[in-house]
Amino acid sequence: MGVCRLLVRLGVYFVALVAILVGCLLADVPGQLGLWRHLDSLPRFRGIIPKIHEGEWGFNHSSLGPEALQGRTVLVTGANAGLGLASVHYLATHGATVIMGCRSQENCDEAARIIKQDAPSATLIPLVLDLASFKSIKHFAEEVNKATPKLHSMILNAGVLKYSFGLTEDGLEQDIGVNHFGHAYLVQLLEGLLKRSASKELPSTIVVVSSNSHYQSYPEGVRLNLTALNDPAEFKPSQTYGQSKLANVLYAQELAARLRPYGILVNSVHPGTVATEIVIRLFEDIQNTHPSIATLFSNFGVARRVKDLLGSFVWNQKDAALTQVYAAVSPEIISKRVHGKYFHPIARENPPCTIHATNTTLQKGLWDLTEEVLRSKAK
Q: Which of 241, 251, 326, 342 is the catalytic position?
């Protein structure tokens, strides 16, 4: 009985401490102490949540006129939800023709219906794309070439975060298989169309959506052989995801150097901590894994206060999408020929991980591995 009482008492103390912490956050005590300003000065944390974003945004919802993107064709992967849908909405309402890559036709059609409610005259091309399948990627690229003679920009937005080990259809660990290799194959297939569409006045662009998770990859950064990448014994969800996001940054830098002579600008971005399906699922997993703690929080009113606080600690999707839209179509990127850079919210250039992302040997090694994988597996 004594042990039970002790556990209950500890639980009450724990909830009380959390309540105090939430109260301090609601009262913005950290802000008054200068913590948010300090965090915004650190490359890894710069602007990742609205609360710590200092200064003006580098791009906003009124930066472009209503018809500013008329005549441009932009491809967005993962276009039916989250940042992808928000990007499509911005691009379509500003006059662009948008090719929407979604995992199913139903998802694409529903997303297109949502966009059309705000922009009835929007030109949308919804196509099925499963980045976990090289066969699907090849078919998608063929459909894109049939659908349009021009492609001015690609936003490689789609991504997965897996909590258990698994392989893609082509035998690649899922996170890096989708987030890196799938997108690399898509670029390879559409590179010619991008080159033909680029002009001196209007270079083409590629935006690789990464994450500040690239700071927390494995000690070696990216494992440069398939045996290591596909080893289930070495699978660690956060580091495996971080590895795939680091691969995004390294790939974007190498691609930028290779494609710039052809009038194609390549940059990578971190959209910040966003209220996307990945974040929502993370909270659901915590609730499912620790139901007793979730119930205790609810009973003491902590859950409600946390929910109220959440709005200042995650970017809404429409605002978060501005950084990748900026890198794709903004006059600043185009006129200054910005390439090989990494951006944080909102549209602010930021240094990537100095340990791995500036390692040119790792960058070249990833490029070689990528070409080897695509040669052997993408038929």
A: 241
